[in-house]
Amino acid sequence: MSTPLSKPQMIVHIQKSLNYTVFDSKWIPCSAKFVCMGNFARGTGVMQIYEVQRGDALLIKEVEKPKPIKCATFGATSIQQRHMCGLFLISYNDRWTSFGFFMTGHAFNEQDRCVCAGYDNGDIKLFDLRNMSVRWETNIKNGVCCVEFDRKDIDMNKLVATSLEGKFHVFDLRTQHPTKGFASVCEKAHKSTIWQVKHLPQNREIFMTAGGAGNLHLWKYEYPRQRCKKESNGVEVGVAGTVNLLQNVTVSTQPIASLDWNTDKRGLFLCSGFDQTVRVLIVTKLNLV
Amino acid sequence: MTSAREVSSLQGESTFTDRQRSLSSEVPVECLDYAYIEKCNDVKYLEKILRVLRSGDEGFYPHLIQFCEDHLEKLDPKNRALRKATPVATASSLSKDEWSQIVDELTTWQEETKHAETLLKQQPPCDDVMKEIPSIRNSNCSISLNKNSNTAERRKSSKRVIPRDYREWDKFDVENECKRIDGNMNHSQPAASKIKGISQIKTEVDTSLLTQQEKLVMANREKDKGNEAFRANDYEEAISYYSRSLSIIPTVAAYNNRAQAAIKLNQWQNAMTDCHSVLQLEPGNVKALLRRATIHKHMGQVQQAAKGLREVLKMEPHNVSATELLSEIEKECQPEQQKQGKKIIIQEVEEEKDENTEKKTEAFLVEPSQPVGGEERSAAPAERGNMGNAQKKPNGKGDLGQHNDSSSSHTKHPWSKGANADKYKVSTQESKEKVANGTNQRGSTASAHADQGSSGNQTQAGGTVNLDAPCGALPPPLARLKNEGNLLFKNGQFSDALEKYSQAIQGYNDSGIDSPDDLCVLYSNRAACYLKDGNSQECIQDCTKALELQPFSLKPLLRRAMAYDSLERYQKAYVDYKTVLQIDASVQAAHDSVNRITRVLIDQDGTEWREKLPEIPLVPLSAQQHRREEPPSADVLQARAEKAARDAERKAEVRFAALKQEGNDFVKKSQYQDAVGKYSECLKLKPEDCAIYTNRALCYLKLDMFNKAKQDCDAALKLEPTNKKAFYRRALANKGLKDYLASSSDLQEVLQLDPNVQEAEKELEEVTVLLRQSLANNSQGKPRKTVPITEVDDDDEEIPAVPDSADTYRSEEITINLHPSNSYEFGQSLNAAHSGGSTAVCADLLTFTAPENLPQYLSTQLDGLTLSFIVKVLDTHLLKKKPDLVYQHLNHLHKADRFSISMMLLDKDGRQHISHLFEHLLNTESTQFTQSDVQNLANKYI
């Protein structure tokens, strides 16, 4: 961090202009391919598969659908099944109705299953699906754009929630105080809405936020020395850490609406925005952070 | 117009003054000054100054802005005011090296993923896997069973909750209710809910349904989770994730990391066992050795710690943490340490050194040792000829000039030329190349030293050692290097000698001389140096190389044996010692070691230790003692030619074996495509090996290339007309080609050759069915069931055994799977038995089911009817035959998820059955349980 050269650098590897509005882009697991989806100006939906080859993305498949395609996930597929394309597609009618209400899941095992939801009035609620109850709720004053757990397959650890006004909050979910809830740290990052937050698959402390002005910020969460402390009455309360900015770049003038890290190659990620462009970027020196 | 302009200018002015006022009210102009900023330590105020400066209202001063930013950064390096949006980095913003590195990494990643993807595609798609996963909806049979419980539920749900009457609100006592809620609150307030699932995290993962590849991915994933937890200082959690990873696939890294996490938690014993596991998997693992030393130190076993650390330092002399830890330990117990200066003793072998001198006198007595200058001159042109194509001409000229004018440094130049040549060559030799290049550069200066000091050395050695004495077919400079190495070795300067030998080997490779004997000697000598340095791994490598060049030469074998010995790989050491003794039975050291190792191995593996040994190679008669009998120098050239021919043959043999082994390994890893490649290479070397054909046929079968598989089987059968394996595989290939007739005749052939091959019988049955079907409706092809073919064995001469899992039961038209592997299959079988009312079938099912799996299998499918059915079966069928099993089942049955509910739903008959069962059980006598045990158990049921 001391010299600018030791900082991670973000480099655009591939930049591909598309002839439709792209809403979501995702890597296909265990391959150098990715899927882009969105809608054509004529109102139909489209899904394309590209393959990364020598600094260029080659279109290998295109499908047109009657309804625009909003987002997709490979979350429910095994490595083998993906070849049969276990892609779950969600078509949508109106983007703005779904805006401001984003959900994300957490499932560790049968004992523990939670879903977190953010609302456009700034509420964040953590639902316990096991007991069918609200386990925790808070308000971050601004409309919530995106919430993500740092890992989905471990015991709840951290939660990042981004807001319309360019702030994001990181909650430490390990210690829940009966009245104070979870400890959190807030950071003002962008001058515009933070559309997306995604954690690096290789390091859960590092995450990227994508802003409405086409900028990408790379952050690292540092734990405090003690993650929880005892209050005078013996009740444990969590202690929030700090967030450090590792790098920030501007790739576009339009909002970046989707972001996806590659799970196989550290630092490689895909982002697409409303400028009808999909980009493959690489972050260097992530192993040194 | 004019008025409009005036207005706009006025407006502009007013906004300007407004802003100026607002800012200047905070920051007076005097503050915008180098001296003031330098003195100012108020971060907030500096931010304001910076904002004013950047706004440009007071004028634009780039240098002052920069100065202010620098000062602010000094005070608060992470200040937000310093954050600037930067454009994306491009090639120009990075150094050339970095850029090319990034690009290289990306291309390699692309290739790797492509490769991995094709591999994934080759795997038979998920049919096998899908089969095992229970379907989401239950089977039809269960519906009839659940009817009763459904109605019971319905009955319950029919009790509607009637809304309270409004009048009830009149009776509502607000204060009381408030108090009650307050009381509840106080009561229910938890003492901070720590969300800790660590204790709940299962340390075992069920991977039975996964393919090898998925397991690998999963194990890595769990390990990464552990690493992340470790980084967050959550060691307990880290340990549980590492354990999960290990339960999937045990890896060195996960063991190592778990050891480290255990060390952090001061769980010394656990850490120790993990270190041992690592060292078992990989004996020379530096991290594990280091960690073991740390544990030893903390457990107070200082000597062992020190010993371990020395081992580490032998392998990695510059390991900082090892050095630090060692000095710490030594400080702690100086007096003890001096007494205990124990080392791993590497047994000395006599005449370690004289191999070279011996050789020299053997072969080159004829050639008199010439005066230095003359020899050099005669050698120089030849040398140049060798290097000519690899070297730029002008360079050569320059070198030649230097040769002529300085005779004192003559030996150096051809060598440094070698180094030059190295750079120009596109060499694909070995990974050592890089290192060698480095040493060469140093080598040129080092050899200059040696040259200057050589006269002194010679006088020291009493003038008996001639450094330029020729050696084998080595060109003089290399011979000189070798001799220097020998001298250094004799003087005990092993690492210097090692360098000389490395140079000589490098020079040899560059010069392109074809004299495997000499290279063998060089490798062997370098191995000796490594052995002395305690670097057993490298020693083994060099010995192996030497042995590839010259199979069954005594010294490399002996050295390798010692190296294995010191690495505690006793089995390999044993084999090598035994080979040594075959060559020359008079090597006392080998005898001693064999005896010692035999004892160790018996301790380790018990009486059957011999069976675990790798094969001891048979030494051909020609190699036995061959060096003693060889007539010195008579027809050296001819003998060498012969030897070269023999070598080539042996090399081919060795290569063949290696390729075959690689192929087999690939098969084991299910990388059939690669295996096919290896086997094909094998066949190029030796087209008449039957086993290779059958193995390749297996690979083709796995790859669904039935035609090729059939061809291979045909070839194998031509070579060996009674190879049942070939028949069996051809049958499978024929089956794949839907030629059932040929397939069945092949299978009959197999059964004729060996009637005990069950797989063939089974296959035959299946094929006959298929044959009939295909005859019946020629138009329709029935989807085939894939038949698992197990992997080839090491000796690859065994018909694979088909796992016996698909044992089915056919009676009274009920076909059930008697060996269910998950709850779904169990439920299916049980329901089938139940709906058919066949208690005998159910009894069989229960006999084959392990009692401890019962609760898991039953899980959510247990209801009153099933329970009473099971009890009935236990009572009527199993109690007499196997009372112990009944007890075990009962002992586990009550642990099932829905047991208590099922008990509630039990009807009268069911309860009677239970009490009958327990009465009977009480009357049975067994060694496994007592009456009180049964009584206790009965309390849980009745």
Automatic annotation (TrEMBL), chain A:
Keyword tags: Repeat, WD repeat
Presence of keyword Repeat: yes
Transmembrane segments: none
Protein name: Dynein axonemal assembly factor 10
Lineage of the species this protein comes from: Eukaryota, Metazoa, Chordata, Craniata, Vertebrata
Top-level lineage group: Eukaryota
From TrEMBL, chain B:
Superkingdom of this protein's organism: Eukaryota
Per-repeat ranges for TPR: 219-252, 286-319, 656-689, 690-723
Matches recorded under InterPro entries: CiliaryAsmbly_MitoImport, RPAP3-like_C, TPR-like_helical_dom_sf, TPR_rpt
Intracellular or extracellular location(s): Cytoplasm
SUPFAM superfamilies: TPR-like (SSF48452)
Any matching Pfam family: RPAP3_C
Ranges of residues in domain RNA-polymerase II-associated protein 3-like C-terminal: 820-909
Cellular component annotations (GO), alphabetically ordered: cytosol
The entry's keywords: Cytoplasm, Repeat, TPR repeat
Keyword set includes Membrane: no
Record region (Disordered): 349-469
Main subcellular location of this protein, as a coarse class: cytoplasm
Keyword match Cytoplasm: yes
Biased composition, class Polar residues, residue ranges: 437-463
Biased segments, Basic and acidic residues type: 420-435
Signal sequence segment: none
Protein name: Sperm associated antigen 1
Organism: Cynoglossus semilaevis
